[in-house]
């Protein structure tokens, strides 16, 4: 069989409400999750033994051994073996689910190589963000991450992603939360006519991890402020547990122009622009040429 190429889109939490805490310490969430056409790429070549090579602009910080999430997923397929190449464009520990996206991408590729759909429930224990990353479609994510309800009909959004190059520890941010019983999103989400209407509504919702993350890492405040100040930015917020923040724009041209301004003002930051929404089709495994 030929090898496969699988795109691993970045996960963006447009909202992230922390609504409770389970007895085991994990937090209950209510999050509107979308995906970007910015991400990592995994290649899978059938082989006699598992191996992993990590490259790409963000590859330097990533563990290349058995701890890497892609090899942890590989161990769920004991009857297969493949040589994996992971090309990282997403910064590590940055709130946009890089490791989770990679794990989900390898899962999609290995399910295709195996010719079967394995039980995705086992992925939750490898990372709470992995279940939502498996389809990589727009979704409402609840529970600790296991309850994924697909959402159709969101208006097209364009985005600038910015990371001030500080790595943030997710457990540390959850531990620092002042309140863990915040209100969820409404039971039924509104229907949005366009990007501006969606952003108006998002402005009434929250990322409940943002205040704690900003207190630990003031550069997150600067990042959101820099995004909000860009021409035609509709909304700026932090994703996940940070430090990556996103600015939403109505058109691809607005986002591209804003990203160019931010990249030249902040040459040390990781800055990308792209489309935001469902990335189901883009995330499907494709044969390698
Ligand atoms: C903050 C989010 O990025 C929002 O999408 C995710 O909930 C985090 O997902 P993740 O990085 O895949 O998280 P995991 O690797 O499973 O967990 C890392 C740590 O974050 C905390 N954690 C994570 C998810 C969750 N619902 N409650 C938690 O309290 C736990 O301390 C856990 O030990
Ligand atoms: N393939 C991978 N890519 C990135 N990090 C990985 C990978 N495999 C394991 N890790 C480890 O996972 C940790 C979290 O990194 P990751 O990039 O997934 O965090 P994140 O962007 O904060 O995710 P989330 O948004 O799900 O909280 C890192 O400290 C890293 O050592």
TrEMBL record:
Entry binding sites for ATP: 91-101
Record's keyword terms, sorted: ATP-binding, Isoprene biosynthesis, Kinase, Nucleotide-binding, Transferase
InterPro entries in UniProt: GHMP_kinase_C_dom, GHMP_kinase_C_sf, GHMP_kinase_N_dom, IspE, Ribosomal_Su5_D2-typ_SF, Ribsml_uS5_D2-typ_fold_subgr
Membrane-spanning intervals of the chain: none
EC number of the protein: 2.7.1.148
Keyword Kinase on entry: yes
Reaction equations catalysed: 4-CDP-2-C-methyl-D-erythritol + ATP = 4-CDP-2-C-methyl-D-erythritol 2-phosphate + ADP + H(+)
Pfam families tied to this protein: GHMP_kinases_C, GHMP_kinases_N
Domain GHMP kinase C-terminal: 203-264
Pathway info: Isoprenoid biosynthesis; isopentenyl diphosphate biosynthesis via DXP pathway; isopentenyl diphosphate from 1-deoxy-D-xylulose 5-phosphate: step 3/6
Keyword Transcription regulation: no
GO terms for biological process, alphabetical: isopentenyl diphosphate biosynthetic process, methylerythritol 4-phosphate pathway; terpenoid biosynthetic process
Ranges where the GHMP kinase N-terminal domain occurs: 68-132
UniProt GO molecular function: 4-(cytidine 5'-diphospho)-2-C-methyl-D-erythritol kinase activity; ATP binding
Active site location: 11, 129
Top-level taxon: Bacteria
Function text: Catalyzes the phosphorylation of the position 2 hydroxy group of 4-diphosphocytidyl-2C-methyl-D-erythritol.
Family according to the record: Belongs to the GHMP kinase family. IspE subfamily.
Protein name: 4-diphosphocytidyl-2-C-methyl-D-erythritol kinase
Highest classification ranks of the organism: Bacteria, Pseudomonadati, Pseudomonadota, Alphaproteobacteria, Rhodobacterales
